[in-house]
Give the backbone structure.
Amino acid sequence: MRSRRDPISSSEPMVVRRHRPMYQVALFMGLLLLLGLVVMYAIGPQRANLLNYAYGTSYSDNFFFNKQLIGVILSVVAFAACALIPHQLFTKKYAKALFLLGLGLCVALVILGAVFHAPFATDTNGAYRWFYLGSFGSFQPSELLKFGALLFVAGFLGMRAGQGKINSVSDTLIPLAIATGTALLVVVVLQKDLGTGVSLLAIVLSMLLVAGLSGKIMLRVLAILAIACVVFIVSAPHRMERVVTFMQGDNNSQVTEDEDSYHITQARVAIGSGGLLGLGIGKSVQATGYLPEAINDSIFAIMGETFGFVGLVLILGVFTALLLSILKIASRLPDMRLRLVVAGVFGWVTSHVILNVAAMTGVAPLTGISLPLLSYGGTSMLFIAAALGLVFQLSRYTSHKPLAEGGEHGQDTSSRRRLRRTRYASGRSM
């Protein structure tokens, strides 16, 4: 028999007992939500006055702040629910149902709006993306689709990885392509929402990378996606205009006539006018009507004007800390299915941050992607908070050290006795 002091055999699956979660996830999310509230309190009255003047509405000064506050409260509830409800309900039992529900609601939205002209499914600039629920606000089903796709694909790839079939074309890649392609067809073609399509791809690609897809196959997948992306862009005039605007950059002579060019220009003006330390809370000029979507997609530029370069660096620092915490959790989860869930959340949040910041700084074309937990909009905030709540719960089941490569049951190099002495493994099981 092996001595109790001997190292664990590499063939023996590691068992990790439930322990304290990684509270940094909740801390960083809370900081971002709080910052979003502060900014909304500052620019909300300007937004309300602008709409009242332009469209004859009667929004109060605190309308947008109150809406954002409700969204924050609901997001905190969603985070707590996903942190407390047994993760098996999300990752196994209802994963497929949530994916199909999100897909079905997206299709239903387009049919109800385009065919039946339902008053609660009206289009915005020709795109059907929201169910309008009157005084309750609106609901964007594509965000539910992201959450469902995250859980469903993680379960599917986790099962295939456990079977050693992650590189199988017939068993893994073709079924995955059908599921992902269907989701992309609905959101990109029917709903005309390229930003959501990019987020879905980021979720799936992150999981494929962590699941162990071979480098050669990954390159082929990326090549196919690049070709598909070109086709989607060329086939839609509004997407082509955004790309042309981006490529022209500051040389575009139709700045005042081209909506996308105007948007990018005003975002740069907002960031540049903030200088090093910003103009201060409540002193934004661009939020008075110059910068489109000031409280939504353009919130990063408004924050640059308000808090300056130093403020933007600190905000990006909080996002970086949150993402590094997520990566740490993913690297220490023995269960492949759970590891892939966390990896997908990383891809989801990362894609939103990178694409939003890149668009506001003119590094990438506009995609209509919001800044997570900061932009105005309850649905996106709600489901990202729910995903982070699930990550928070899964952080209870991490090992003390990063797992070694290979297999569903990764190993660390610590001994059984040493593992028992860590604060992670020694906590009471609940």
